Amino acid sequence: MQQMSSTGTVKALVSGLFLLLSSGLLIGCEEASQADSAQVPQTAIKALEGTGKQSTEAEDTVVTMFRAQGNEPFWTVELAEHEMRFITPEHLDGIELKVDERLAYAKGVTYSGLYEGQEFWLDIRSQPCQDTMVERDYEFTATFHWAGEDLLGCASRWDE
């Protein structure tokens, strides 16, 4: 009988220890969850209210429409999601381009594709830019690679 009692005592101790450790882990998870949610911007929380979704990550707004332009030579690129129009004085109606790839990185985004076997890309960087010819400030800098040449300019969000 003594042996059975000590086995029962060991089981009770193991069960108690398991419950104690489990509750400690759950409390730790609860504290981490509360700490994470404290870092979420209130706008993200309000946007998710009533949707049944919860998020502990800040959400960025993805801009998919830009207008980039430069001087000397004059050029404009209008980008709407997966389509671009490249406008120059020689092509006032614009050259329609299909974007094959979008690559986002920490400080910007690059859209690229092929046109008649030639690679083109538009790189938009989150860096202020000033067009000194018209004394206008822009939110982004832009580089448009076309026909082996890099055209430098500025860019802004575009609303069609």
Topology:
Elements: H1 2-38, H2 42-48, E1 65-70, E2 75-80, E3 83-88, E4 91-98, E5 101-105, E6 108-115, E7 118-125, E8 129-131, E9 136-138, E10 140-146, E11 149-157
Antiparallel strand pairs: 1-2, 1-11, 2-3, 3-4, 5-6, 6-7, 7-10, 8-9, 10-11
Q: How would you describe this structure to a colleague?
A:
The protein is an alpha+beta fold. The protein folds into two domains: 2-48; 65-157. Helix content is 28%, strand content 43%. It is built from two helices and eleven strands, in the order ααβββββββββββ. It has a nine-stranded antiparallel beta sheet, with no helix packed on it. A hairpin with a 2-residue loop joins strand 6 (108-115) and strand 7 (118-125). It is globular. The model is unreliable at 16-59 (pLDDT under 50).
Number of strands: 11
pLDDT average, as an integer? 75
What helical percentage do the residues reach? 25-40%
Number of domains in the coordinates?
2
What is the overall number of helices?
2
SSE ordering: HHEEEEEEEEEEE
Beta-strand content bin: 35-45%
Q: Strand order, biggest sheet?
A: 4-3-2-1-11-10-7-6-5
Low-confidence stretches: 16-59
Rg, alpha carbons: 29 Å
Head-to-tail CA distance between termini:
87 Å
Give the overall form: globular
Largest sheet: 9 strands, antiparallel
Structural class: alpha+beta
